[in-house]
């Protein structure tokens, strides 16, 4: 486990790229998910028919699995997105850091850990999993010695979170992921500095996160095509 001073330093360094954000989570509100012919045709033109097929599979996954219990939803969504390939932002988008929308992620059939986590978060939200039970969580991947992002799910406010990770297909409680050290987490409701395995201390709204703001703008633009 990191010394607390080192952990806080790494958290502050990570925050430098995640400031001044205005969250826009209405894109996947009820009734907004349907993929129109216009959007599908644009994806087909730019990325080919396989990309369009992936979006249709995603839509089918959401529509046909809303009645599952939460644990089954987590499994289905985690398995679906973990089929995609990992690609760094520099290689994929020619940028140091870029958070893709789920449409961008599936259209290009790849992304980095942020993109996996974001796609899972919005998909589960659309399938009826409450936002307050989910956090997009920054961690240190100990074995890789680098920053990493996962999606965490809390069955109750005081529960130990489950970890949905693109590095492994299994969904494990945080206490069984000794290879991850939590730093901070966020969702559409707020931003938290993490304690070792729990909810952590709230430090502000997710409007502080600049990359989330940019993501929200692109989500809204996609929504106009639906």
Gyration radius over CA:
17 Å
Number of helices: 8
Structural class: alpha+beta
Helix content: 40-55%
Number of DSSP strand runs:
9
Mean pLDDT metric: 79
User: Which descriptor suits the 3D outline?
Assistant: globular
For the termini, the CA-CA separation is: 46 Å
Q: What can be said about the biggest beta sheet?
A: 7 strands, antiparallel
Q: Which regions contain 5 or more consecutive residues with pLDDT less than 50?
A: 1-32
**What's the helix-strand series?**
HHHHEHHEHEEEEEEEH
Q: Biggest sheet, strands in spatial order?
A: 6-5-4-3-7-8-9
Which keywords apply here?
226 residues; alpha+beta; two-stranded parallel ribbon; 9 strands; disordered N terminus
Describe the structure.
The chain is an alpha+beta fold and 226 residues long. It is built from 8 helices and 9 strands. It has helices at 4-15, 37-47, 49-64, 70-81, 89-93, 102-108, 113-126, 210-223, and strands at residues 85-86, 110-111, 134-141, 146-153, 162-164, 172-173, 180-186, 191-193, 201-204. It has a 7-stranded antiparallel sheet, with helices on one face. A hairpin with a 4-residue loop joins strand 7 and strand 8. Helix 2 (37-47) packs across helix 3 and helix 4 (70-81) packs antiparallel against helix 7 (113-126). The protein is globular, with a radius of gyration of 17 Å. The N and C termini lie far apart (46 Å).
